[in-house]
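New to this. Help decode both lines:
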Amino acid sequence: MIELEGVPELIDPVMVAAFEGWNDAGDAASTAVAHLEREWKGEVFAALDAEDYYDFQVNRPTVFMDGGVRKVTWPTTRLSVVRVGGDKPRDLVLVRGIEPSMRWRSFCNEILGFAHELGVELVVVLGALLGDTPHTRPVPISGTTSDPDLARRMDLEETKYEGPTGIVGILQEACAHAGVPAVSLWAAVPHYVSQPPNPKATLALLNRLEDLIDVRIPLGELPEDARAWQVGVDQLAAEDSEVAEYVQSLEEARDTAELPEASGEAIAREFERYLRRRDGASGPPGGHATADGSDGTSYRREGPSGRPRPPRPPKPDPEADSDTGGEESSED
């Protein structure tokens, strides 16, 4: 039984989830949700019982000192609520944790129980995978769903993926079976520089999320961090002629593939984002929303509701299959 005492009524809530592990290349997805928690000062209102879902020999607890007292932090998944301010306020239910080691169906059912009790109208799961994409180009973001109607309404791809999946794919399918609209947003991270953090991929996920749910997300230092990350990788790649040559081949392949898409739609999307950010300066920039309604608006429910050196890449082999399925095989 899920107890939600003390959690206020929400406005048009959207659940945004990310999980560390197999579906989180470069920690891009989990860092995106952590950014939302930090910028909007989210407060945790629930945590799943770690004993039910985690193998502590795989994800070990950590010990820390708090005022001279030793305490233990257990690996788990936590939920928080933040309010996005502005002319049309809405609430986000943020889910951040580690991919569970076991009982995935029970895990998803528990997450969906919270979604049901809170009146969540849409679930967005963030993921990141390794792909043959150059770090010098915009991060490819794919939005997928298993709901054909939702795919048409939100300009998403209907997933056709077949193969091994992670908790992102399982949660999206659980939502589909429960009748909860669900979307996955995937960032493709260059496989030759996969070490976390990857602020450029995190920024790209947040920009796509902003477009999808029509909110203005305060980005803080992320744009500058993304630029610094790219400059750092540029410098490291320049020190190795084989890496530089490989990056150039990826750039050529990417530019050739995307040439027809350098059209009005992509340009218009970026221009609309620029206008929203410029016009949004007159409103509350991000709202500094918290779960206690400190922005002065009472809660209510409306509607149905370091830089590591990149390893030397292998010579590309068209016959070989990527461990992650490549950037074109985002699961869901």
User: Anything to note?
Assistant: DSSP finds nine helices and ten strands in the chain. The chain has a mean pLDDT of 82. The CA atoms of residues 208 and 214 lie 10 Å apart.
